[in-house]
TrEMBL record:
Transmembrane helix among keywords: yes
InterPro entries, sorted: Alkaline_pH_Ca-Antiporter, NaCa_Exmemb
Organism whose genome encodes this protein: Nocardia acididurans
Domain of life, per lineage: Bacteria
UniProt subcellular location: Membrane
Transmembrane spans: 7-26, 32-51, 63-86, 98-120, 132-152, 164-183, 223-241, 253-275, 287-312, 318-339, 346-364
Membrane topology: Multi-pass membrane protein
Protein name, per record: Ionic transporter y4hA
Domain Sodium/calcium exchanger membrane region, residue spans: 32-185, 222-363
């Protein structure tokens, strides 16, 4: 009976979210509409997590976490490009703000939560330093090439790339991301598998052996429903964004706070999936989701906006400000010190969460 109810809501909720999205798209929301869209958004997030975990159980790790991270990012990139094409000069810094928010949320918020939950459960959160370190190095390189260098280049005035520099950044982002995915899934997949909390270095091949493995047909159905749920998450987040923006403006907060709230809503599926994995002693999956989402956000967004810049009028501002660069540098340094030992306590989780809190606070009060 429980399994029947689970299958029923997991199919119905994504479809209802799609119906709500189609019904309210392009309309202004009143109080009832905001409430209905918010409920549908929460349901779509929970459904996305359920289907992502079912697919992960079928294909195994690290493919499971990769599918969720890439699926969310592709839809997010589509939303960013659509907004840029429709907003004109107002969207000059949209890609930069969204990508930076995603990096800080994933590399500090989701990363820190995974370590904190894992440490609370086993006193010490154990993970694979080789794979996590490689992922962090790739994120740091992508972020520096795409978000830091534009502030210091001199070919164009302001924090923007010239056309040739933008092409180089786009190609480099795609190459790095593609090579990482190949290493993660083909060359060295064991570096990204969970390790047992009680015996450091012992790879967990399947933590859910007691559960029946989904069939290929069930996995394909869940893949389709996952995409529907993720479209609902991003689209419904877009619908409530004007209400969020109005609330931010009425509270006297800077406009950058809107991007932070939207990014948090879009990244909710990864956040919930990472915490659930950490509670099952699979901290590595949470870290894979965190760093994989950050990597995909940069590696797919920059090439997409580079291509979209052909049709977008006005400058494309990618360079970070001084405060943002300090936060990014501190995140990379602290992340490296956290990853090197291959194990973390409550302290490391709290440090990353404090960094995330600092990012949110400075976005609200720059």
């Amino acid at each position: 009976m429980v399994r029947f109810c689970t299958r029923y809501w997991s199919v119905l909720i994504p479809l209802l979210a799609a119906v709500v999205l189609a019904g309210f798209w392009g309309r202004s929301l009143n109080g009832v509409g905001i409430a209905l869209v918010s409920v549908a958004l929460v349901g779509a997030v929970l459904a996305a997590v359920y289907h992502a975990e079912l697919i992960a159980h079928r294909v195994g790790e690290p493919f499971g976490s990769l599918i969720l991270a890439v699926a969310v990012t592709i839809i997010e990139v589509g939303l960013i490009v659509t907004l840029m094409l429709s907003s004109g000069d107002k969207a000059a810094s949209l890609a930069r703000d969204t990508v930076f928010a995603a990096v800080m949320i994933t590399c500090n918020g989701i990363f820190g939560l995974s370590l904190l939950v894992g440490a609370l459960r086993r006193r010490v959160a154990v993970f694979n330093a080789e794979g996590t370190g490689a992922a962090l190095a790739t994120v740091a390189t992508l972020a520096t090439l795409s978000l830091v260098l534009p502030t210091f280049t001199t070919s164009e005035p302001g924090p923007v790339f010239s056309a040739s520099q933008l092409i180089f950044a786009a190609v480099a982002s795609l190459v790095l991301y593609g090579v990482f995915v190949m290493v993660q899934t083909v060359r060295h997949p064991d570096d990204f598998l969970p390790v047992e909390g009680g015996a450091e270095g012992d790879v967990v091949l399947d933590d859910d052996e007691h559960e029946e493995r989904p069939t290929g047909k069930q996995a394909l159905r869940s893949l389709g429903l996952l995409l529907v749920a993720l479209v609902g998450v991003v689209g419904l987040a877009k619908l409530v964004s004007p209400s969020i923006e109005s609330g931010v403006e009425s509270a006297g907060l800077p406009h950058s706070a809107v991007g932070v709230v939207i990014a948090m809503l879009v990244l909710l599926p990864e956040t919930i999936a990472a915490v659930r994995a950490a509670r099952r002693d699979r901290v590595q999956i949470g870290l894979n989701l965190a760093l994989g989402s950050a990597m995909a956000s940069i590696g797919l967004t920059i090439p997409a906006v580079a291509l979209a810049s052909v049709w977008i009028e006005g400058p494309l501002m990618l360079g970070l400000g001084a405060t943002q660069m300090v936060l990014l540098a501190l995140t990379v340094v602290v992340g490296a010190l956290t990853v090197v030992p291959g194990r973390a306590t409550l302290l490391q989780g709290c440090v990353h969460l404090v960094l995330f809190s600092g990012f949110v606070f400075l976005a609200v009060s720059p």
